Protein backbone atom coordinates (compact mmCIF):
# COMPACT_ATOMS: atom_id res chain seq x y z
CA UNK A 1 0.00 0.00 0.00
CA UNK A 2 2.92 2.45 -0.16
CA UNK A 3 1.58 3.97 -3.40
CA UNK A 4 -1.81 4.70 -1.79
CA UNK A 5 -0.12 6.25 1.25
CA UNK A 6 1.93 8.49 -1.01
CA UNK A 7 -1.23 9.62 -2.82
CA UNK A 8 -2.95 10.42 0.48
CA UNK A 9 0.08 12.34 1.72
CA UNK A 10 0.26 14.30 -1.54
CA UNK A 11 -3.45 15.15 -1.36
CA UNK A 12 -3.09 16.32 2.24
CA UNK A 13 -0.11 18.48 1.29
CA UNK A 14 -2.02 20.09 -1.58
CA UNK A 15 -5.02 20.77 0.67
CA UNK A 16 -2.81 22.47 3.26
CA UNK A 17 -1.16 24.62 0.58
CA UNK A 18 -4.57 25.56 -0.82
CA UNK A 19 -5.76 26.52 2.67
CA UNK A 20 -2.72 28.74 3.19
CA UNK A 21 -3.33 30.51 -0.13
CA UNK A 22 -7.01 30.89 0.74
CA UNK A 23 -6.07 32.84 3.87
CA UNK A 24 -3.81 35.08 1.80
CA UNK A 25 -6.63 35.78 -0.67
CA UNK A 26 -9.30 36.46 1.94
CA UNK A 27 -11.21 39.62 1.02
CA UNK A 28 -14.12 39.41 3.45
CA UNK A 29 -16.61 39.30 0.59
CA UNK A 30 -18.00 36.69 -1.75
CA UNK A 31 -16.41 37.56 -5.11
CA UNK A 32 -19.13 36.01 -7.30
CA UNK A 33 -21.98 37.73 -5.44
CA UNK A 34 -20.07 40.99 -5.54
CA UNK A 35 -19.78 40.93 -9.34
CA UNK A 36 -23.39 39.85 -9.84
CA UNK A 37 -24.47 42.90 -7.83
CA UNK A 38 -22.86 45.25 -10.36
CA UNK A 39 -24.82 48.48 -10.90
CA UNK A 40 -23.97 48.64 -14.62
CA UNK A 41 -27.12 48.83 -16.74
CA UNK A 42 -25.55 47.37 -19.87
CA UNK A 43 -25.80 43.60 -20.15
CA UNK A 44 -22.92 41.85 -21.89
CA UNK A 45 -21.14 38.49 -21.88
CA UNK A 46 -18.86 39.80 -19.10
CA UNK A 47 -20.24 40.27 -15.60
CA UNK A 48 -18.01 41.98 -13.04
CA UNK A 49 -18.20 45.10 -10.91
CA UNK A 50 -15.63 47.63 -12.15
CA UNK A 51 -16.01 49.82 -9.08
CA UNK A 52 -15.34 46.94 -6.69
CA UNK A 53 -12.37 45.70 -8.73
CA UNK A 54 -10.75 49.13 -8.89
CA UNK A 55 -11.36 49.80 -5.22
CA UNK A 56 -9.42 46.63 -4.38
CA UNK A 57 -6.61 47.40 -6.83
CA UNK A 58 -6.20 50.99 -5.61
CA UNK A 59 -5.91 49.76 -2.03
CA UNK A 60 -3.07 47.40 -3.00
CA UNK A 61 -1.12 49.23 -5.72
CA UNK A 62 0.49 52.32 -4.22
CA UNK A 63 2.01 55.24 -6.11
CA UNK A 64 1.17 53.98 -9.63
CA UNK A 65 -1.95 55.96 -10.52
CA UNK A 66 -1.18 56.05 -14.25
CA UNK A 67 -0.97 52.25 -14.41
CA UNK A 68 -4.09 51.80 -12.28
CA UNK A 69 -6.03 54.27 -14.44
CA UNK A 70 -4.98 52.38 -17.58
CA UNK A 71 -6.40 49.18 -16.08
CA UNK A 72 -9.67 50.92 -15.22
CA UNK A 73 -10.00 52.27 -18.77
CA UNK A 74 -9.37 48.79 -20.13
CA UNK A 75 -11.95 47.18 -17.83
CA UNK A 76 -14.62 49.61 -19.02
CA UNK A 77 -14.08 48.57 -22.64
CA UNK A 78 -14.03 44.87 -21.70
CA UNK A 79 -17.15 45.13 -19.51
CA UNK A 80 -19.03 46.93 -22.29
CA UNK A 81 -17.87 44.19 -24.70
CA UNK A 82 -17.04 46.58 -27.54
CA UNK A 83 -13.48 45.39 -28.23
CA UNK A 84 -12.52 43.74 -31.52
CA UNK A 85 -13.77 40.13 -31.17
CA UNK A 86 -10.98 38.81 -33.40
CA UNK A 87 -8.16 40.02 -31.15
CA UNK A 88 -7.28 39.67 -27.47
CA UNK A 89 -9.41 41.93 -25.30
CA UNK A 90 -6.36 43.98 -24.36
CA UNK A 91 -2.58 43.74 -24.79
CA UNK A 92 -0.46 45.82 -22.43
CA UNK A 93 3.25 46.24 -21.76
CA UNK A 94 4.19 47.25 -18.22
CA UNK A 95 7.63 48.86 -18.04
CA UNK A 96 9.60 49.82 -14.96
CA UNK A 97 12.37 48.84 -12.54
CA UNK A 98 12.20 45.85 -10.24
CA UNK A 99 9.91 45.97 -7.21
CA UNK A 100 7.51 48.70 -8.33
CA UNK A 101 4.35 46.56 -8.65
CA UNK A 102 4.14 45.39 -12.27
CA UNK A 103 3.44 41.74 -11.46
CA UNK A 104 1.56 42.70 -8.32
CA UNK A 105 -0.88 44.72 -10.44
CA UNK A 106 -1.76 41.57 -12.40
CA UNK A 107 -2.07 39.53 -9.19
CA UNK A 108 -4.32 42.19 -7.69
CA UNK A 109 -6.55 42.16 -10.79
CA UNK A 110 -6.81 38.36 -10.63
CA UNK A 111 -7.64 38.47 -6.92
CA UNK A 112 -10.33 41.10 -7.53
CA UNK A 113 -11.92 39.23 -10.44
CA UNK A 114 -11.57 35.62 -9.25
CA UNK A 115 -10.84 35.82 -5.53
CA UNK A 116 -7.47 34.16 -6.12
CA UNK A 117 -4.25 36.04 -6.91
CA UNK A 118 -2.94 33.03 -8.86
CA UNK A 119 -5.91 32.77 -11.23
CA UNK A 120 -4.02 33.70 -14.36
CA UNK A 121 -1.80 32.00 -16.92
CA UNK A 122 1.78 33.01 -16.12
CA UNK A 123 4.65 32.37 -18.50
CA UNK A 124 8.14 33.25 -17.24
CA UNK A 125 9.72 34.33 -20.49
CA UNK A 126 13.25 34.06 -19.11
CA UNK A 127 12.78 30.27 -19.29
CA UNK A 128 12.25 30.65 -23.05
CA UNK A 129 15.49 32.50 -23.76
CA UNK A 130 17.01 29.74 -25.89
CA UNK A 131 15.89 29.11 -29.46
CA UNK A 132 15.06 25.43 -28.87
CA UNK A 133 12.81 26.32 -25.91
CA UNK A 134 10.28 27.90 -28.27
CA UNK A 135 8.54 24.51 -28.50
CA UNK A 136 7.48 24.95 -24.87
CA UNK A 137 5.14 27.69 -26.08
CA UNK A 138 4.28 26.56 -29.60
CA UNK A 139 4.39 22.78 -29.10
CA UNK A 140 6.70 20.18 -30.62
CA UNK A 141 6.88 20.28 -34.44
CA UNK A 142 5.65 17.32 -36.55
CA UNK A 143 7.81 14.23 -36.24
CA UNK A 144 9.02 15.05 -32.72
CA UNK A 145 7.99 13.42 -29.46
CA UNK A 146 4.77 14.98 -28.13
CA UNK A 147 3.76 16.56 -31.44
CA UNK A 148 0.40 14.76 -31.64
CA UNK A 149 -0.58 15.75 -28.10
CA UNK A 150 0.04 19.44 -28.86
CA UNK A 151 1.06 20.09 -25.25
CA UNK A 152 2.56 23.44 -24.23
CA UNK A 153 3.21 25.34 -21.00
CA UNK A 154 -0.01 27.33 -21.53
CA UNK A 155 -3.00 26.86 -19.23
CA UNK A 156 -6.03 26.84 -21.51
CA UNK A 157 -8.58 27.27 -18.70
CA UNK A 158 -6.84 30.37 -17.34
CA UNK A 159 -6.44 31.84 -20.82
CA UNK A 160 -10.12 31.53 -21.75
CA UNK A 161 -11.48 32.62 -18.36
CA UNK A 162 -14.68 31.42 -16.74
CA UNK A 163 -18.01 32.50 -15.23
CA UNK A 164 -18.42 35.54 -17.49
CA UNK A 165 -15.00 36.83 -16.43
CA UNK A 166 -12.15 37.31 -18.93
CA UNK A 167 -8.98 35.24 -18.74
CA UNK A 168 -5.71 36.85 -17.68
CA UNK A 169 -2.31 36.09 -19.20
CA UNK A 170 1.03 37.35 -17.87
CA UNK A 171 4.17 37.16 -20.01
CA UNK A 172 6.77 38.05 -17.39
CA UNK A 173 10.12 39.61 -18.38
CA UNK A 174 9.20 39.44 -22.05
CA UNK A 175 12.45 41.01 -23.24
CA UNK A 176 14.33 37.84 -22.19
CA UNK A 177 12.45 35.55 -24.58
CA UNK A 178 14.09 34.33 -27.78
CA UNK A 179 13.19 35.87 -31.15
CA UNK A 180 11.36 32.68 -32.14
CA UNK A 181 9.05 33.01 -29.15
CA UNK A 182 8.39 36.69 -29.88
CA UNK A 183 7.55 35.84 -33.50
CA UNK A 184 5.04 33.25 -32.27
CA UNK A 185 3.33 35.96 -30.22
CA UNK A 186 2.70 38.16 -33.25
CA UNK A 187 -0.25 36.01 -34.30
CA UNK A 188 -1.59 35.97 -30.75
CA UNK A 189 -1.61 39.78 -30.55
CA UNK A 190 -2.98 40.18 -34.07
CA UNK A 191 -5.80 37.62 -34.28
CA UNK A 192 -5.97 36.15 -30.78
CA UNK A 193 -5.12 32.60 -31.86
CA UNK A 194 -2.11 30.34 -31.36
CA UNK A 195 -1.96 27.07 -33.30
CA UNK A 196 0.70 24.66 -32.06
CA UNK A 197 3.41 23.62 -34.49
CA UNK A 198 1.82 20.23 -35.24
CA UNK A 199 -1.54 21.83 -36.05
CA UNK A 200 -3.26 19.47 -33.61
CA UNK A 201 -4.51 22.16 -31.24
CA UNK A 202 -5.37 25.86 -31.24
CA UNK A 203 -5.44 28.16 -28.21
CA UNK A 204 -7.82 31.11 -28.27
CA UNK A 205 -6.76 34.36 -26.58
CA UNK A 206 -9.82 36.27 -27.78
CA UNK A 207 -11.32 36.18 -24.31
CA UNK A 208 -8.04 37.18 -22.64
CA UNK A 209 -6.40 40.25 -21.15
CA UNK A 210 -2.67 39.98 -21.91
CA UNK A 211 -0.03 41.70 -19.79
CA UNK A 212 3.68 41.75 -20.48
CA UNK A 213 6.26 43.04 -18.01
CA UNK A 214 9.76 44.29 -18.70
CA UNK A 215 12.60 46.18 -17.03
CA UNK A 216 13.55 47.82 -20.34
CA UNK A 217 14.51 51.52 -20.13
CA UNK A 218 14.20 51.51 -16.33
CA UNK A 219 17.59 53.03 -15.66
CA UNK A 220 17.44 55.34 -18.67
CA UNK A 221 14.20 56.73 -17.23
CA UNK A 222 15.83 57.09 -13.79
CA UNK A 223 18.75 59.05 -15.24
CA UNK A 224 16.39 61.24 -17.24
CA UNK A 225 14.31 62.09 -14.16
CA UNK A 226 17.38 62.83 -12.04
CA UNK A 227 18.79 65.14 -14.72
CA UNK A 228 15.51 67.09 -14.87
CA UNK A 229 14.65 67.17 -11.17
CA UNK A 230 15.97 70.68 -10.43
CA UNK A 231 13.53 72.80 -12.39
CA UNK A 232 12.19 76.22 -11.40
CA UNK A 233 8.62 76.35 -10.10
CA UNK A 234 7.58 78.85 -12.74
CA UNK A 235 8.17 76.37 -15.56
CA UNK A 236 6.78 73.26 -13.83
CA UNK A 237 3.76 73.04 -16.13
CA UNK A 238 5.88 73.30 -19.27
CA UNK A 239 8.38 70.88 -17.78
CA UNK A 240 5.67 68.28 -17.15
CA UNK A 241 4.69 68.30 -20.81
CA UNK A 242 8.30 68.19 -22.00
CA UNK A 243 9.08 65.42 -19.52
CA UNK A 244 6.24 63.30 -20.87
CA UNK A 245 7.47 63.74 -24.44
CA UNK A 246 11.05 63.03 -23.39
CA UNK A 247 10.15 59.83 -21.57
CA UNK A 248 8.02 58.68 -24.49
CA UNK A 249 10.98 59.16 -26.82
CA UNK A 250 13.35 57.24 -24.52
CA UNK A 251 10.93 54.33 -24.12
CA UNK A 252 10.13 54.14 -27.84
CA UNK A 253 13.81 54.10 -28.79
CA UNK A 254 14.62 51.35 -26.27
CA UNK A 255 11.64 49.24 -27.35
CA UNK A 256 12.51 49.43 -31.05
CA UNK A 257 16.10 48.50 -30.26
CA UNK A 258 14.83 45.34 -28.53
CA UNK A 259 11.64 44.34 -30.35
CA UNK A 260 10.63 44.46 -34.00
CA UNK A 261 8.35 47.35 -35.11
CA UNK A 262 5.52 44.90 -35.89
CA UNK A 263 5.71 43.51 -32.34
CA UNK A 264 5.56 46.97 -30.72
CA UNK A 265 2.77 48.03 -33.10
CA UNK A 266 0.52 45.23 -31.82
CA UNK A 267 0.61 46.46 -28.21
CA UNK A 268 -2.52 48.37 -27.18
CA UNK A 269 -0.99 50.27 -24.27
CA UNK A 270 2.48 50.85 -22.82
CA UNK A 271 2.63 51.98 -19.19
CA UNK A 272 5.78 53.17 -17.43
CA UNK A 273 5.78 52.53 -13.67
CA UNK A 274 7.23 55.07 -11.25
CA UNK A 275 10.02 54.35 -8.83
CA UNK A 276 8.71 53.76 -5.30
CA UNK A 277 8.90 57.07 -3.44
CA UNK A 278 9.47 57.53 0.28
CA UNK A 279 5.92 58.85 0.68
CA UNK A 280 4.53 55.43 -0.38
CA UNK A 281 6.70 53.26 1.86
CA UNK A 282 4.57 53.55 5.02
CA UNK A 283 1.42 52.46 3.18
CA UNK A 284 3.27 49.49 1.64
CA UNK A 285 4.41 48.39 5.11
CA UNK A 286 0.81 48.62 6.35
CA UNK A 287 -0.32 46.47 3.40
CA UNK A 288 2.28 43.84 4.26
CA UNK A 289 1.07 43.81 7.86
CA UNK A 290 -2.53 43.41 6.66
CA UNK A 291 -1.44 40.38 4.62
CA UNK A 292 0.36 39.04 7.67
CA UNK A 293 -2.84 39.30 9.70
CA UNK A 294 -4.69 37.32 7.03
CA UNK A 295 -2.06 34.60 7.37
CA UNK A 296 -2.47 34.66 11.16
CA UNK A 297 -6.16 33.77 10.86
CA UNK A 298 -5.33 30.06 10.81
CA UNK A 299 -3.69 30.47 14.23
CA UNK A 300 -6.70 32.40 15.60
CA UNK A 301 -4.65 35.47 16.45
CA UNK A 302 -4.40 39.08 15.35
CA UNK A 303 -1.57 41.61 15.41
CA UNK A 304 -1.98 45.30 16.14
CA UNK A 305 0.90 47.75 15.98
CA UNK A 306 2.05 51.28 16.78
CA UNK A 307 2.79 53.82 14.07
CA UNK A 308 6.39 53.69 15.33
CA UNK A 309 6.58 50.07 14.11
CA UNK A 310 5.61 51.17 10.60
CA UNK A 311 8.21 53.96 10.67
CA UNK A 312 10.90 51.63 11.99
CA UNK A 313 10.32 49.02 9.27
CA UNK A 314 10.05 51.72 6.60
CA UNK A 315 13.35 53.36 7.56
CA UNK A 316 15.12 50.00 7.77
CA UNK A 317 13.80 48.69 4.47
CA UNK A 318 13.47 51.56 2.00
CA UNK A 319 15.80 51.22 -0.97
CA UNK A 320 14.71 53.03 -4.12
CA UNK A 321 16.68 50.66 -6.33
CA UNK A 322 14.89 47.52 -5.09
CA UNK A 323 11.42 48.95 -4.44
CA UNK A 324 8.73 47.03 -2.54
CA UNK A 325 10.78 43.82 -2.37
CA UNK A 326 13.29 45.47 -0.05
CA UNK A 327 10.37 46.57 2.15
CA UNK A 328 9.06 43.00 2.32
CA UNK A 329 12.53 41.83 3.33
CA UNK A 330 12.52 44.42 6.10
CA UNK A 331 9.13 43.15 7.35
CA UNK A 332 10.53 39.61 7.44
CA UNK A 333 13.82 40.57 9.12
CA UNK A 334 12.55 43.12 11.63
CA UNK A 335 9.10 41.78 12.53
CA UNK A 336 8.12 38.33 11.25
CA UNK A 337 11.17 36.54 12.69
CA UNK A 338 10.57 37.95 16.18
CA UNK A 339 6.79 37.39 15.91
CA UNK A 340 7.40 33.74 15.00
CA UNK A 341 9.66 33.29 18.02
CA UNK A 342 7.08 34.94 20.28
CA UNK A 343 4.18 32.82 18.97
CA UNK A 344 6.15 29.59 19.24
CA UNK A 345 6.87 30.31 22.90
CA UNK A 346 3.64 31.99 23.99
CA UNK A 347 0.64 31.52 21.71
CA UNK A 348 -2.04 29.08 22.76
CA UNK A 349 -5.64 29.24 21.57
CA UNK A 350 -8.31 27.56 23.68
CA UNK A 351 -12.03 27.02 23.15
CA UNK A 352 -12.64 29.61 25.87
CA UNK A 353 -11.29 32.27 23.51
CA UNK A 354 -14.30 33.22 21.41
CA UNK A 355 -12.38 35.91 19.53
CA UNK A 356 -8.88 35.78 18.04
CA UNK A 357 -6.09 36.33 20.54
CA UNK A 358 -4.72 39.84 20.05
CA UNK A 359 -1.06 40.75 20.26
CA UNK A 360 0.41 44.24 20.07
CA UNK A 361 3.74 45.19 18.47
CA UNK A 362 5.77 48.17 19.66
CA UNK A 363 9.34 49.45 19.47
CA UNK A 364 11.72 49.26 22.43
CA UNK A 365 15.46 49.93 22.22
CA UNK A 366 15.46 49.67 18.43
CA UNK A 367 13.67 46.31 18.25
CA UNK A 368 10.09 45.10 17.83
CA UNK A 369 8.51 43.61 20.95
CA UNK A 370 5.16 41.89 21.42
CA UNK A 371 2.66 41.48 24.21
CA UNK A 372 -0.78 39.96 24.52
CA UNK A 373 -3.70 42.35 24.87
CA UNK A 374 -6.10 41.60 27.69
CA UNK A 375 -9.68 42.77 27.11
CA UNK A 376 -8.43 44.99 24.28
CA UNK A 377 -6.30 47.02 26.70
CA UNK A 378 -2.66 47.60 25.76
UniProtKB/TrEMBL annotation:
<keyword id="KW-0143">Chaperone</keyword>
<protein>
    <submittedName>
        <fullName>ATP-dependent Clp protease ATP-binding subunit</fullName>
    </submittedName>
</protein>
<dbReference type="InterPro" id="IPR003959">
    <property type="entry name" value="ATPase_AAA_core"/>
</dbReference>
<feature type="domain" description="Clp ATPase C-terminal">
    <location>
        <begin position="276"/>
        <end position="358"/>
    </location>
</feature>
<keyword id="KW-0645">Protease</keyword>
<dbReference type="GO" id="GO:0006508">
    <property type="term" value="P:proteolysis"/>
</dbReference>
<dbReference type="Pfam" id="PF10431">
    <property type="entry name" value="ClpB_D2-small"/>
</dbReference>
<feature type="domain" description="AAA+ ATPase">
    <location>
        <begin position="88"/>
        <end position="247"/>
    </location>
</feature>
<dbReference type="InterPro" id="IPR050130">
    <property type="entry name" value="ClpA_ClpB"/>
</dbReference>
<dbReference type="InterPro" id="IPR003593">
    <property type="entry name" value="AAA+_ATPase"/>
</dbReference>
<dbReference type="InterPro" id="IPR001270">
    <property type="entry name" value="ClpA/B"/>
</dbReference>
<dbReference type="InterPro" id="IPR019489">
    <property type="entry name" value="Clp_ATPase_C"/>
</dbReference>
<dbReference type="InterPro" id="IPR027417">
    <property type="entry name" value="P-loop_NTPase"/>
</dbReference>
<dbReference type="Pfam" id="PF07724">
    <property type="entry name" value="AAA_2"/>
</dbReference>
<keyword id="KW-0067">ATP-binding</keyword>
<dbReference type="GO" id="GO:0005524">
    <property type="term" value="F:ATP binding"/>
</dbReference>
<keyword id="KW-0378">Hydrolase</keyword>
<dbReference type="GO" id="GO:0008233">
    <property type="term" value="F:peptidase activity"/>
</dbReference>
<keyword id="KW-0547">Nucleotide-binding</keyword>
Amino acid sequence: MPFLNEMLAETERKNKNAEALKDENTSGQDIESLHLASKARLSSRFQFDIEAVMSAIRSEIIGQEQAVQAVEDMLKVVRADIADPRRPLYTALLLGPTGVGKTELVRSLARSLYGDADSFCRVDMNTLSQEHYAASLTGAPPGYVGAKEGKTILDEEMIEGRNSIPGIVLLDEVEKASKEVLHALLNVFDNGMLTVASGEKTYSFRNSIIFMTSNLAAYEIQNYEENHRKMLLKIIHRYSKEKGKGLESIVKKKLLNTFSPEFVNRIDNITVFNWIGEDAVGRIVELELEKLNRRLIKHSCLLTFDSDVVKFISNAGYDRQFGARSIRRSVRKNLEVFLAEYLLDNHKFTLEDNDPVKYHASIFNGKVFFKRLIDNVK
